[in-house]
Structure formats: C-alpha cells, structure tokens
Amino acid sequence: MTIRLSPEKGHLTFSSNNATHVFAIARPQGQGGVCPAYKLTVVDASEDHVLLKRICRKYEYKPNKFSRSVAYYLYDSPTATMRDIWVASATGKDDPLPDAKPSPTIERVSNGYEFKWSGVYPSQGGGTLVRTHNRYVRKFEGRNSTLVCKNVLDKNQFSDSASCEGEFLPRLNSNEK
After folding, report:
1. Domain boundaries, the chain
2. Which of 108, 43, 52 lies closest to 75, judged by CA?
3. Cα separations (Å) of 168 from 15, 61, 72, 154, 177?
C-alpha cells in the first residue's frame, strides 16, 4: 500500500494492487479553516489498515482566537472507510498540544478492529482519566460498506460515552481495480 498526501488539495490517497481511495484530510492550502498547517504520522499499518495521527499546529484564525488539535484516524481498505477514533482540541493561546497519553493503538480482530484506550484526556486543569473500548466491525450491504462502531466497555466503568460519534472523512474517489 502507498500513501500520498496532496496538501495543495487537502487530499490523502491510499493505493494498493486492488484499489485507490482518496479522502479529504484538510481544506486545500490557502482556503482557510482552523488547520492550515498540519503534520501526518503513520502510527500503525497493515495490508488492510492504516492508523494515522494528524497534528494541527497552533493557528490564530482571528485576532486572539487560537486553535490546535490532535486526531487519530483509522483507514480500512476493505470498506474504503476512514474515520476518527480519538480527537482533542485546545483554543487558548498558551494551551499545550492536546495529545493522547498514552498514544492510541488498535488491534486487528475478526472482521475489524478493537480500540482499547485508558489514559488522560487533555482538558483544562490537567486532564481527565478516560477509558474507551470500541470495536469497529466491517458492514457490507450491496455495494455500500462501512465500519460500524460499538462501545463494548463494561457499563460499570467510567467511559467516554461519545467515543463512537467520530466523524467519517469524506471519500472523494474510489477506484476498485
């Protein structure tokens, strides 16, 4: 699998022997938004998936209005899906980068992935202890496919109840070979 970033368009392309999938990872260069300068890092990858980290550097989008963020995205080749699995942002001028501690990882399971994370979610005052245990399962219906998220954390444990509400990145193109 190859990955190609086209920052002038804000596109991220995944290509393999079987398919090419193009996603909108950011707005095109020079077209505004709160993440005009970002860094992408591959955290984990296999023939079927990529776990990416996107850091949006501090940006003053209006006088004395700032934004910075960290997001982890899971790309799944069989479903041609890319969605965030962990996101945090900060808006204060001197706020630190809101990174996950420890860094999120995923485990491959039958027909999908498991995301177990227990750590400090950055927030004002230093952070909040959060546990997340989600399972992302491939769902195929005719020509449509996606990754369905299910929170599988024990109901008696404190968890991030919104952990399955992550956004899907827009897929701009999908060419099956």
Report:
1. 2-176
2. 52
3. 19, 24, 12, 25, 23
pLDDT per residue as tens, the chain (177 positions): 999 999 889 999 999 888 899 999 988 877 777 788 889 999 999 999 999 999 999 988 889 988 999 999 999 999 999 999 999 888 888 888 888 888 899 999 999 999 988 887 776 666 777 888 899 999 998 888 999 998 887 665 544 555 687 788 889 987 776
Helix (H, G, I), strand (E, B) or coil at 161: coil
Instruction: Tally the C-alpha atoms within 13 A of residue 58's C-alpha that lie toward its C-beta.
Output: 12
> Terminus-to-terminus CA distance in the chain, angstroms?
14
For residue 140, which amino acid is it?
F
> d(Cα 4, Cα 16) in Å, to the nearest integer?
12
Amino acid type, 48: D
The tokens for 136 are 């992302």
The one-character DSSP state at 70 is E
